[in-house]
Structure formats: structure tokens, C-alpha cells
Design goal:
- By secondary structure, this protein is an alpha+beta fold.
- It has two domains: 34 residues; 387 residues, Cytochrome p450 (Orthogonal Bundle).
- The chain contains 20 helices and 13 strands.
- The strands form five sheets. Strands 3-4-9-6 form a four-stranded mixed sheet, sandwiched between helices. Strands 5-13-10 form a three-stranded antiparallel sheet.
- Strand 1 and strand 2 form a beta hairpin.
- The radius of gyration is 25 Å and the shape is globular.
- The model has no long low-confidence stretch (mean pLDDT 86).
- It comes from Acaulospora morrowiae.
- Keywords: Heme, Iron, Membrane, Metal-binding, Monooxygenase, Oxidoreductase, Transmembrane, Transmembrane helix.
- Belongs to the cytochrome P450 family.
């Protein structure tokens, strides 16, 4: 073989390849040992850093971070390939990283990862939008859609309607002896609720799961639906879940790992295929709604859901009072922009609701006194009638349960930020472009902020002083992120969770099959409940 006219044998090629490999390894470690302001960390492997640690702890990456926190303290670093990420639980750093100021140096969640660009999510919507001006504009419309009184009241009605459908499935498809995975019911339920609230479309995710539990069920009992109808409708929700899981995969693993390592390559293709299905189906829904709006007389009121608001933004059919004086954003939103916002609304709403609901089922099964007290509040406040929006503000113990479960089981264990300017973090001025992860379980379970932090104690939130949390206990509970990037749908999420607790515990006994079985979950960017085996039957008392 000749290279630049030089004849090379197999041995020569081997030596050349080995030499280049050694040079690359030395270059990697030169960068590692000469990095500015080093922090403690396990020794990284060349090229991959701590990625294999991520794989070893793939089912619970937060446990690995707890171990690092115990060993290195409240601030340490990890390497993903050749990129350094600083993990912190220092409360004194939170005022900067989670600052609500529009002049914050931490308005970007992630750098410019090629994986997220390939996935079609980076720079769109809210979560991963690095264009701050565009992000602010999108956030205005998102907040407007999910915070209006009509929308919040409708979310209560929609939650009840979808839960009532699921109750009918339970009645015809389950009996007292059937063991079923509640995490699947919870995820299907949240999917059906959020999709209907955001797009006005049904996904039949709970109906689809029922057919896996009771495959011999006559589909005519499912509101006259055919199995093929249910299958087609559920394709959207399944594609969405695969796509959301892909965020973790495409964030942490370099392109060469995803494309060339067996196993990773198949996952890579599966996620991109799900992306195409999701994008195409959502684009069809958006186009269908556009036609519906165009065919509606101008003197006829349009419905006030999120999709309609986004489509009519900056048009003569605008149903929002939100205005923006920036000339660049006085144009109507494109289908691609709308799709990005819709995906974020679905992602933020479904995973949070489903997983917190599942974790609550687990904890209340282990603490019957808490469950009885919760039921007493529900019976005294609502009894046997339907829930109203006004009822929810009176469910203070219900809210305390949600907060304590979220403290114990943070659904978003990691909050990412990237600095736009040099800043003093961890006692050292760190350069612009430094990437940080706030490790929320390391704060929620910290004895410096909570008495007996490992103990499940709802009473700590019964007389919870919000003003106290804003001062000396600030950031000790991070349910919805923080700063300007705080979850804009947090009010809607709390309404849904309260409504679901009322509906579940007012009429049903949901019991764990094995009280001694550990709580199963997976942790990546989100903590997801798994294999929560229960029996479901009508309430006995």
C-alpha cells in the first residue's frame, strides 16, 4: 500500500496506527491535566471519559452521583467524552445559576450538541432553545396558553373525563386478582390527558394498554373502537415516548458511539424513526387545525386550546392578548415552530404527571396513615361529587403529599445550564461556556436543609412556610426548575396531580402486590417509574 508515494506494509500500518492512537490519547490527557480550575473526579478513560460509568449506572445514574457527592463533596466534575461537566449541590451557587434576572449568565441549558441538532430539537421551542430572544417569544405564548383561567378549569374537566374512561376500562378488563403495572396505566393516563389538552386529539394510550393486559377483550366494549383504530392512535404516543427517551441518548453519547458501536447503532436508528413518525403526525394535526380555523366564520369564537392559540398568533384571528414589539417576531408562527412548542408541552406534562403519580401510589401503599388522612381530606372537601377548579386550593394535605414525594423522588434529577460569561462558582471564577448540572436529589436529601432527609414525612409540608423557603431554605425544594427557565406549566401540573389523587383515592383501592419489593425506576434526564405491580379494586371503606 502506498501513502503519499511511500510504500507501507501491514507492520508499518500497524505502527502508524498505534502511533496516532498514542498521540490522540496523550492529547486527551494533556487537555485533562491542563484544564483550568480542576475539580475532584474519578479518573476518566481516554476519548469516552466517564461514559462507561453512565452505562454501568444506566438504570439509576442519580445513585452514581450520590456516591460521587459522598466522596468528593458538593461540587465535582464528570467527563462525557472530551467535555467537562460540573455537578453542584451548593446552595450558595443556586442564586447565580437559577437567577430569575433577564441578565442572567445562565439562560442556556446545554451547549450546541450535534446529537440534539440531529434529533431536530435543539434551538426550537423552550427547553433547548439557545436563541434567548426567540425563547422569550415562545415562552410568552406557552405561558399564556397554560395559565389562563379557562384553560386551567378545562384541565380539571379533561382530567376527570379521561380518568372516567380509564375507570370503565378497569371495570371491564380487570378483576381483583389481576396484577397490573400501574406505571403503565399512569403513563397512558397522562398521555391521554395532555395530548387532548394540547392538541384536542385522543391517543387512546390507556385503551391500548388495557388490550395488553386483557388481550381477549372485545374491542366493541371500548366505546365501539376497533383494535386497529386503537393501534393507529397509540402510534403517536409510542413514537413520542421513544423520541423523549432519545433526548438522553443523543445528549450524552457522541456521534461516533451512536453510529458505529453495535447496539447503539440500532437504538440510534429506532429513535430517528420515531422522530420522523412523531413529526409527521404532529404536522398533520397542525395542518388539519389550520384548515378548521380557516373554515370557521370570523364572528364565531375559536376554542382556546394551546394549538389554536399558537396557530392564530400574530394573525387577524389572534385569541391571545400577548403582544411583542420585536419586529422579528411579529410574523405568524410556522408549523415547525408550533411543532417544537407542542412537543415541549407534551414532554413536560406527560413525564412529570405520570411519574409523580406512580411514586405517590408507591409511598401511600407503605404509609397507610398518610393515605387515610388524604382520603379524609378528599371526603370532607369533595365527597361523591365531581371536582371543581375551586376545590383544589382547599386540598392542602394533598399538596403536601405531592411535595414530599417529589422531594424524595425528584422527577428531574439534573438541571443543566451553560454560562455565557465568566462567573464565580464554587469559589473560583470559571470561564464562559462552562457546563453545569444541578443535582437536585443531592439537595432534597441533604441533612443541612432537611431534618431526617431520608425519612418520608408529609408533615414537614403541612405548615410549610413559602416565605421561609424564599429566604433561609431557598432552593431546598426544586420541583419545577428555577430562574427564568422554570417550568411555565407548573400550575397546570399541580392541578392535574391533585385531581388524579382525588379520583384515584376517592373510589379505588390501589395496593402493591409486594410491599417488600423495592421501588423500581430508571434515571437519565428524567426519573421514570417502572414495574409498579398493583391490584386495583373498588374502594372498600
Amino acid at each position: 500500500m502506498k501513502v503519499f508515494g511511500i510504500s507501507l506494509g501491514i507492520y508499518d500500518l500497524f505502527v502508524l496506527s498505534l502511533t496516532l492512537l498514542v498521540i490522540k490519547i496523550l492529547s486527551y490527557y494533556y487537555k485533562y491535566y491542563t484544564r483550568k480550575d480542576p475539580l475532584p473526579a474519578p479518573f476518566p478513560l481516554p476519548f469516552v471519559g466517564h461514559i462507561f460509568d453512565h452505562l454501568i449506572y444506566s438504570s439509576d445514574f442519580s445513585e452514581y452521583c450520590h456516591q460521587l457527592q459522598d466522596k468528593y463533596g458538593d461540587i465535582y466534575e464528570q467527563w462525557f467524552g472530551s467535555e467537562r461537566v460540573i455537578f453542584t449541590t451548593r446552595i450558595e451557587d443556586m442564586d447565580k445559576i437559577l437567577s430569575p434576572s433577564t441578565k442572567s449568565k445562565y439562560l442556556t441549558r446545554l451547549p450546541n450538541p450535534e446529537g440534539l441538532k440531529e434529533l431536530g430539537v435543539f434551538g426550537k421551542g423552550l427547553l433547548l432553545n439557545h436563541d434567548v430572544s426567540n425563547w422569550k417569544f415562545n415562552r410568552q405564548f406557552f405561558t399564556q396558553a397554560v395559565s389562563t383561567l379557562n384553560f386551567l378549569k378545562e384541565s380539571v374537566n379533561c382530567t376527570q373525563a379521561v380518568f372516567n374512561e380509564m375507570e370503565e376500562y378497569w371495570k371491564i378488563g380487570l378483576d381483583d386478582n389481576i396484577i397490573t403495572d400501574f406505571s403503565e396505566w399512569s403513563h397512558g393516563l397522562a398521555t391521554d390527558i395532555i395530548f387532548q389538552m394540547i392538541t384536542g386529539k385522543k391517543t387512546w394510550a390507556t385503551a391500548s394498554y388495557l388490550l395488553t393486559v386483557s388481550p381477549g377483550l372485545n374491542p366493541i366494549n371500548l366505546q365501539g373502537l376497533d383494535k386497529e383504530d386503537i393501534k393507529k392512535s397509540s402510534e403517536l404516543s409510542k413514537a413520542f415516548q421513544t423520541y423523549i427517551m432519545g433526548l438522553d441518548f443523543f445528549t450524552f453519547f457522541p456521534k461516533w458511539v451512536r453510529l458505529y458501536i453495535p447496539g447503539f447503532r440500532d437504538t440510534h436508528k429506532k429513535i430517528l424513526s420515531a422522530r420522523d413518525v412523531l413529526f409527521n403526525k404532529l404536522d398533520d394535526i397542525i395542518k388539519e387545525r389550520r384548515k378548521e380555523i380557516e373554515g370557521t366564520p370570523k364572528n364565531e369564537k375559536l376554542r382556546s386550546d394551546m394549538l389554536t392559540l399558537l396557530i392564530t398568533a400574530n394573525t387577524d384571528r389572534n385569541i391571545s392578548d400577548t403582544k411583542d414589539n420585536t419586529q422579528e417576531y411579529t410574523k405568524p408562527l410556522t408549523d415547525e415552530e408550533i411543532r417544537g412548542i407542542i412537543i415541549e408541552a407534551l414532554g413536560g406534562g406527560i413525564d412529570t404527571t405520570a411519574n409523580v403519580f406512580s411514586f405517590i401510589i408507591y409511598y401511600l401503599a407503605h404509609y397507610p396513615d398518610v393515605k387515610n388522612r388524604l382520603r379524609q381530606e378528599i371526603d370532607n372537601t369533595i365527597s361523591h361529587r365531581s371536582i371543581t377548579y375551586e376545590d383544589l386550593s382547599r386540598l392542602t394535605y394533598c399538596e403536601a403529599v405531592i411535595k414530599e414525594v417529589t422531594r424524595m423522588m425528584a422527577t428531574a434529577p439534573f438541571i443543566g445550564r451553560v454560562s455565557s460569561e465568566p462567573d464565580l462558582i464554587g469559589g473560583v471564577v470559571r470561564e464562559a461556556g462552562t457546563r453545569y448540572f444541578i443535582f437536585t436529589p443531592g439537595i432534597h436529601l441533604n441533612k443541612d436543609f432537611w431534618e431526617e432527609p431520608q425519612k418520608f414525612n408529609v408533615d414537614r409540608f403541612v405548615n410549610f412556610n413559602e416565605q421561609e423557603q424564599q429566604s433561609e431554605k431557598k432552593y431546598s425544594l426544586i420541583m419545577w426548575g428555577g430562574g427564568l427557565r422554570q417550568c411555565p406549566g407548573r400550575k397546570m401540573a399541580m392541578i392535574e396531580l391533585k385531581s388524579l389523587l382525588v379520583l384515584a383515592f376517592k373510589n379505588w383501592d390501589i395496593d402493591l402486590v409486594d410491599l417488600n419489593a423495592p421501588l423500581k425506576y430508571e434515571v437519565g434526564l428524567v426519573r421514570s417509574a417502572k414495574d409498579l405491580n398493583v391490584t386495583i379494586k373498588p374502594r372498600s371503606n
